[in-house]
Amino acid sequence: MRACAIFVRSTFFNLVLGCAASIVQAQDPPKLPPDNSPPDLSQPPFAPTFVPRVAVQRVRTVQGISPALTSCPKGYTLKTVVYGTLPPQHRCVKGRNSCVMIWPLTGLGAVPGFPWYADLCDAGLVVTTRVTPVYPPGSIRNQEQGVVVLRIGNQPDGSIPIPTTLGGFSGPFRLEAAALAALRQWQWKPYLIKGHPALFWTRVYFKFELTPDGPRVQTFLRDPPNKSR
After folding, report:
1. Is the pLDDT of residue 3 over 80?
2. Strands (DSSP E) along the chain, which ranges?
């Protein structure tokens, strides 16, 4: 009886071990024979995929300005100008040395009621009232002098926002503050093109100078002959 029990137990263990070995062998991947053949050097190791490049024509514009300017209002002449590294632009100009440059506003830059944009090198075209800056006493004591250049532009509602210093004035802050305080009191009129007001930018120059006759402030509505700081 005992021998029979031992036989049954050993048979059961052998059956379990056989099943486990079968499961392990089923999970192992089949082994492939080694590939000892020499590589084929006549073909590239991979086949690159080339995506054809599509030529896209890009038109650079400034503030939504249309480059297709082919005619100008009466009194203006069509001219090609270059701004720094930008591609050539068509502008309508008039005046000595092309003092006034205008172009139509279209696309994203369009403003209802303001079909034109004007760059005015003479602020006298839009100024009605001027106020001369006061030479700051602190600047007189410290012998401070220089030229402050301010840039002014109008808004669609006709207002003139706070002017900005053009070119980053590197002189004494008192002179710049005095120029800004005076310019805020100026009064302006619209610049009309074909009977419609235009958005415009212009510049004003204030020259603070200590002369033998005393401190002097000069206002220039155009680029002065010598505006060195």
Report:
1. no
2. 77-81, 89-94, 100-104, 116-120, 127-129, 146-153, 164-165, 187-188, 191-193, 196-211, 214-220
